[in-house]
Design a protein that fits this description.
single chain, alpha+beta, 8-stranded mixed beta sheet, 5-stranded mixed beta barrel, 30% helix, globular
């Protein structure tokens, strides 16, 4: 018999009754039933109940066992007595009567429980992540992640893509976040950068003629952590294709994403044909470019109702600012003063002056706004917003560029509070027609709004003749349930157009050649039209596991301060390391 096991802890069934077996694993739970000891023995594959009675030669050792000790158990398989079967377990029809137990690895007192899914401080969970990963739910999430990535690989290869590996040590690139820099020992004073994404390399592969590329790529960005973005590093499905239009990309990749959600979505409905929503429309209806379409609320511009109306606050806002608008958020079933006042208090907690409202009862609109604009306009609003008795409407006013984000948050709040969100589906969509540029108020300059390598709609002519902030790009996102899960574009593959696009954002031709020399040179020697996208592996897995934090689907994540508490990173370099790298520290004053 094998030194440690003849079977794993998920293998035994009724047909094994009477067999002598050897199992090894962790003591998941130990129960003393009047001298009879029951040990739930766990390994990666499952859990088996072990029974030890006082007459067994293993009993003396069994009495010393504690939670999470690693043991080897020899014994005989027998069917469980009538009434003690556990249909929740694949092994629930049998148990192992122990004849010998060997302690392979005793465990100290645990800093966090492994049995059950009780909440525990994150700092402890991350410091002892190897224990945290033993918990059933987290262990299951990680295995599901592996299955999802395997499925993505199969689907990509079946679509004619080949998997490539691109360099990790590369040059700095303006991808919208800070680079992680790596000092060069043999080139004093110079630095590599860890890739924020394999963007340039995958485009260069198209220049090299490989046609269809994909990679499950690690990406590194030195940015502040948040619930839907892991600090430091993350993984994405990186894709590029040659001789394609935007429609070709959609037709190729939509079935891959949809298929993964159907395969791992536990029976939830999945959008069959992703709607195409222009960026401006998404902001206008939902207040965000990553809308949760499970929420049926759509905002409407009702400025015409309030222009010159008896509600002087809104009328003055519209009169004083040509950019100003009044947006309405319909709120089915929200028609009570208590709920409206609660939403108003929430808005004030978000730093807003308040949230105007009207609610309807017995065909009559109530609230300060209704009292000021009169019954005729109130009835007109109700009809336009398709509301009924017991419903309400909320209003935001001013420059949409300044209030759209808050309006989007209010929409989410209403959908959640009023239980309007359909939790039984994955609602996917393409967001298209992103603006090529945006105004950076802090720097007082035009900057790329998304990916700097995207093709402007209209090509070089648009860059030469149109007002920059009016230019749209062949850029697109996939959103799902309020998250951006993929982003991409058709690339700007003409060198003169590339230079002009960067010039508008304040980069000279010499800077473009210096920073993107490899790609600039490649464009001079026959560049095919190409495009692609990158899908966030971590976010897709998070959604499919029903989690709300990426740390629940990553093996060894950092904390909110971008610290690896398990390995002690980042750590100080030794004086010798600094000398070899020709570095001297200039630390901030404490």
């Amino acid at each position: 018999m094998h030194r440690y096991r003849s079977h794993d802890c998920g293998a035994l069934r009724k047909e094994h009754a009477g067999n002598s077996v050897r199992l090894s694993g962790w003591c998941h739970r130990i129960r003393d039933h009047g001298g009879l000891l029951f040990i739930d023995l766990r390994d990666h594959y499952g859990l088996t109940q072990v029974v030890v009675d006082p007459d067994s030669p293993a009993f003396k050792t069994a009495e010393t066992l504690r939670s999470e000790w690693v043991v080897r158990v020899d014994g005989r398989v027998r069917e469980r007595p009538e009434g003690t079967l556990n249909p929740e377990l694949p092994t629930g029809a049998v148990e192992v009567f122990a004849t010998d137990i060997e302690v392979l690895g005793p465990a100290a007192e645990l800093p966090l429980p492994v049995f059950g899914e009780a909440e525990y401080p994150e700092e402890i969970r991350l410091k002892y992540r190897f224990l945290d990963l033993r918990r059933e739910k987290l262990h299951r999430n990680i295995m599901k992640r592996i299955e999802i990535i395997d499925s993505i690989r199969r689907r990509m290869k079946a679509s004619g893509f080949n998997e490539f590996q691109t360099p990790i040590l590369t040059a700095s690139s303006p991808e919208g976040a800070r680079d992680y820099l790596v000092p060069s020992r043999i080139h004093p004073g110079k630095f590599y950068a860890l890739p924020q994404a394999p963007q340039q390399y995958k485009q260069l592969l198209m220049m090299a003629g490989f046609d269809r590329y994909f990679q499950i790529a690690p990406c590194f960005r030195d940015e502040d952590p948040r619930a839907d973005r892991l600090p430091g590093e993350f993984y994405q499905l990186d894709v590029e294709m040659s001789f394609v239009t935007q429609e070709d990309v959609f037709a190729t990749l939509e079935p891959v994403i949809r298929g993964v959600f159907e395969e791992f979505g536990d029976g939830k409905k999945v959008t069959q044909r992703f709607p195409r929503i222009p960026h401006a429309e998404a902001i206008r209806k939902y207040g965000t470019d990553k809308p949760d379409l499970r929420n049926p609320i759509e905002m409407q511009d009702v400025s015409d109702v309030f222009r010159g109306s008896g509600f002087k606050l809104f009328a003055r806002i519209l009169e004083s600012d040509p950019k100003a608008q009044i947006w309405a958020l319909p709120a089915p079933t929200g028609g009570s003063r208590a709920f409206c006042d609660r939403m108003n208090s929430w808005a004030q907690g978000e730093g807003q002056p308040g949230l105007g409202y009207i609610f309807w009862r017995e065909g009559v609109g109530s609230g300060p706004i209704a009292n000021n604009i009169g019954p005729e306009l109130t009835a007109s609003l109700r009809q336009r917003l398709e509301l009924a008795d017991g419903d309400a409407a909320f209003f935001v006013a001013g420059d949409p560029a300044k209030f759209a984000r808050f309006a989007g948050l209010a929409r989410l709040r209403l959908g959640t509070e009023l239980k309007l969100v359909d939790e039984s589906r994955f609602a996917l969509a393409w967001i298209v027609d992103f603006p090529m540029y945006e105004w950076d108020e802090e720097a007082k300059k035009i900057e790329f709004s998304h990916n700097p390598f995207s093709m402007p709609q209209g090509g070089l002519d648009a860059l030469l003749k149109e007002e920059p902030l009016s230019i749209k790009a062949f850029q697109y996102d996939i959103t799902c349930n309020g998250y951006e899960i993929a982003s991409g574009g058709i690339r700007n593959h003409r060198p003169e157009a590339m230079v002009k696009a960067f010039e508008i954002a304040g980069y000279s031709e010499s800077t473009v050649i210096e920073r993107f020399g490899g790609m600039y040179r490649a464009f001079q020697y026959g560049a095919p039209p190409h495009g692609g996208m990158a899908a966030g592996i971590d976010r897709i897995v998070m959604l499919l596991c029903g989690e709300h934090n990426l740390r629940e689907v990553a093996l060894f994540p950092m904390n909110q301060r971008a610290e690896d508490l398990l390995m002690g990173a980042p750590s100080e370099a030794t004086p010798q390391q600094l000398r070899e790298l020709h570095l001297r520290l200039n630390l901030p004053q404490k």
